[in-house]
Amino acid sequence: MDSQIYGALNLIMFFLAAINVNSLPQHVLPKSTSTQISSNSVLVALLDSHYTELSELVEKALLLQTLEQAVTQHNITIFAPSNEALERQMDPEFKRFLLEPRNLKSLQNLLMYHMIPARVGSNDWPREGTDSAHHNTLCVDESESDNRLMLSKGNSGEKIVGGVARVVRPDDVIRPDGLIHGIERLLVPQSVQEDFNRRRNLGSISAVLPEGAPVVDPRTHRLKNSKSLKKPVTPGSPPALPVYDAMAPGPSLAPAPAPGPGGARHHFDGESQVKDFIHTLLHYGGYNELADILVNLTSLATEMGKLVSEGYVLTVLAPNDEAMAKLTTDQLSDPGAPEQIMYYHIIPEYQTEESMYNSVRRFGKVQYDTLRLPHKVAAEEADGSVKFGQGEETAYLFDPDIYTDGRISVQGIDGVLFPVGSLEGKVVAPATAPKVVTKQRRGKLMEIGCTITGAFGQSC
What is the domain extent for residue 81? Predict the structure, then answer.
């Protein structure tokens, strides 16, 4: 009896425990969605292989999880470009385009275009002479050309991928879930190429036509105008630059920056014209010293030729040999002195004896600009001729129109001219300071003391 009661109690306790267990809340563990990748996977081998540039791009494209899922479903074949192809042979602008965050989809399509969801070894390649094989790629783009990758063989038996890339390391990495072939160059799908061209041409992002900042011409000190540059220059028109800007930067430093006979303007042959007028001086006689200074002592002949080639006109007041012989050694020994003297005798205008004489007859006194800024040479009528200079340093027009060709005019004078106030033509004796005799002055206290003693009838 007791045993039956004890058994009934155990049965009741068992049912109560079962009821309590069923009444407790059940905690359901979530299923793991992560895929487990074997250490012997082709994806792990890619990350640890010598294709470091490709593996780095795969990580930047956020494709690791996508490739892990693909490896768990089927074998994959990866055509891996060499590091040299991705680092040195790739266009820097194209690489910059791929690494921009907004172009992540283009980078993903580019990398997935190198992967086939099937196992294609070197033995599975189409034979030589047969039709090429087309395989689907992992590219997510909807374009049919980007989803198909062609495998073929060349005439010499080499394996070719996509019709352009040669396989240089077949079956380089072999794993149970896939393999890797090394190719010589990068494969670019058509959709990625179109995105790059569209971005490069600013077709999708440009709203305003970009224009450069205004550029100031350092020679003319004016804004450069593209329309004025395209406008053809009329032959024989005066140059846009002042003659002072076209001159050499300093005496005997360099020829003038203006182009020579072979320049862009092709209007005048200044070098030949300068040679012609120097030969005329030598044949005329009496101007050998001036010709020697222009050719040998300075580079003024070359500079004048370049100025005339650019379209400038010059009038040379040429001192004769007698006038040049009066120059002292001190006047020519200073650096740049011969150039400065000659600059003062060159007028950036075309003047003949008739035009200058008519000017001084009409206006009385005329100031002509010279190449020696800011000095000007004065001209006036004297004794039926033209006299240049002021004060003691004057010269008369002695041999008119020695050489006139429409660009260069040479007028002979009988003296060397110097600017007004210049010390080049004068020898100034050093001035002696006058002696100053200072008057000795007694002290103020002594003067007051003598005044007081003088009041008492005593002298100091």
Answer: 42-200
Q: How do 408-413 and 314-319 pair as beta strands?
A: parallel
409 phi/psi in degrees, rounded to 5: -125, 130
| Beta-strand relationship, 385-390 and 393-404 | antiparallel
Question: Which CATH number does the domain housing residue 251 bear?
Answer: 2.30.180.10
Q: Is the pLDDT of residue 329 over 60?
A: yes
Q: At what angle are helices 64-73 and 52-60 packed, to 10 degrees? A: 100
Return the closest-CA partner of residue 360 out of 340, 336, 384: 384
Amino acid (1-letter code) at residue 442: R
Q: Which residues contact 337 (CB under 8 A, 6 or more apart)?
A: 331, 424
**Domain count across the chain:** 2
194/250 same-domain check: no
Rg of the chain over Cα atoms, rounded to whole angstroms, equals 49
Q: What is the pLDDT of residues 430-445, one digit of tens each?
A: 444 444 444 454 455 5
Last residue within a domain, chosen from 200, 222, 257: 200
Domain identity same for 181 and 265: no
222 in any annotated domain: no
**Does residue 427 belong to any structural domain of this protein?**
no
What is the spatial distance between Cα 344 and Cα 372, in angstroms, rounded to a whole number?
5
115 and 250 in a common domain: no
Of 26-30, 368-372, 386-390, minimum mean pLDDT range: 26-30
Residues 156 and 284 in one domain: no
Residue 278 and residue 294 in contact, taking contact as beta carbons nearer than 8 Å: yes
What digits encode the pLDDT tens for the residues 234-270? 666 677 667 766 665 544 433 444 443 444 444 578 8
Question: Could you give the CA distance from residue 376 to residue 448 in angstroms, rounded to a whole number?
Answer: 66
For residue 436, what pLDDT is reported?
Answer: 47
Amino acid at site 155: N
Q: Which amino acid is at 74?
A: H
Domain edge (last residue) among 143, 172, 200: 200
Contact residues for 63 (Cβ-Cβ < 8 A; gap 6+): 108, 111, 112
Whether 163 and 256 map to the same domain: the answer is no
What are the b/e assignments for 278-313, b being 16+ CB within 10 Å? bebbeebebbebbbebbeeebbbbbbbbbbbbbbbb
Q: What is the mean pLDDT of residues 12-32?
A: 47
Q: From CA 183, how far away is CA 169, in angstroms rounded?
A: 7
Residue 391 lies in a domain: yes
Identify whether residues 115 and 262 lie together within a single domain.
Answer: no
Give residue-wise pLDDT tens across range 49-80.
Answer: 899 899 999 998 888 888 888 888 889 999 99
91 SS3 class: coil
What's the whole-model pTM score?
Answer: 0.42
